[in-house]
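Sync notes, pocket subgroup
Present: LS, DG
LS reminded everyone that the earlier model was apo-only. Rerun requested with manganese (II) ion included. Inputs:
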Amino acid sequence: MKILHTSDIHLASGHTERVEALKALVSTARKYDVDALTIAGDFLDNENDVVNLEPEIRKIFSEINFPVFLIPGNHDEKAYRSGIYLGKNVKIITSPEEKYRVKDFVVKGLPYSSEVDHVTELLKISRDIDPHHKNLLMIHCDLLDISGDFEDRGTEGDERYFPVYLDYFKELPFSHVLAGHFHTKTHIKAIPGSENRFFIYPGSPVSITRKETGKRSAILLTDEEVTTIPLDTFHFEEIEIKFEIDKNPESVLKKLSTLNPDSNTKIILKVTGFTNSEYSPEALENEIKKLIQPYEEQITEFLFLVRDLSHVLEDPIVQKVIEIINNEYRKDSKELTEFYLKAVTGVTEE
Ligand SMILES: [Mn+2]
């Protein structure tokens, strides 16, 4: 068994980088000579673009020699109802009754639907399994074990979509759960009570919003292991440069020059920290803006969050305390001074 697993590509008109990501996934699947490519929901961003995207998707899938299994997610729940055709190797699973056998494994999928009770459907789908083979479950769902916040999902706000707990899968007869819905990063969770059964979120293979930062990846699943395969696809990269009181703006450029971003990377640059009387925040911001000019194409967002400390540093009491820190705690003076200044100015760690 060798499967490449992904989800949440959110193909949409006008987003060529997502189409490119699909091509990258197909060529990765080819490179690893997989038995199947699984896409666990939100393959399409919405149901309106299907007509425009259909020919191009069909073309990308036209020369593959492995099956592609796809389930609808909350974004493309209604997209497949018109009976679109994406090629002879693409199986859009629209019912929990469908079952596909490939070599020594069986693929089943629970299509996302706002009109069904997913727990009932999960019990239903678990009844009809093949006891002689590995059974895989594809599902687009919200795993409540991972986090209480909503940062990981797409743009849907705080609504829960097919909320599940890892414990649900403990007694269900599936070897692995190939999931979708979480965008930001990969999550590989062992199903409780077992060391070799996994619940897998691959994360979006391309940045959809600015929340998906860092190099994107897909999951390669074999009988022996679960591996993260990095993809050369479009993504945002967040870089924070912390300004220390004794540094000059050149250090910003130094950090940027080590990055060497390619055309697939867009940088969100965050400059934080403090300035002293040598630089006003305005002067510093202008200087940094000048320094980052050569990287203009790659920097999509520049956040200047440096705080001005000059007025605090002029205070004789503050000066006295810093002097004492420097004299009495020489070894940790830098750390202590920073800590003290944070306390004085009311800056707390995020
Ligand atoms: Mn999504």
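DG: The first helix runs from residue 16 to 31.
LS: The chain is about 25% helix and 25% strand.
Action: DG to write up.
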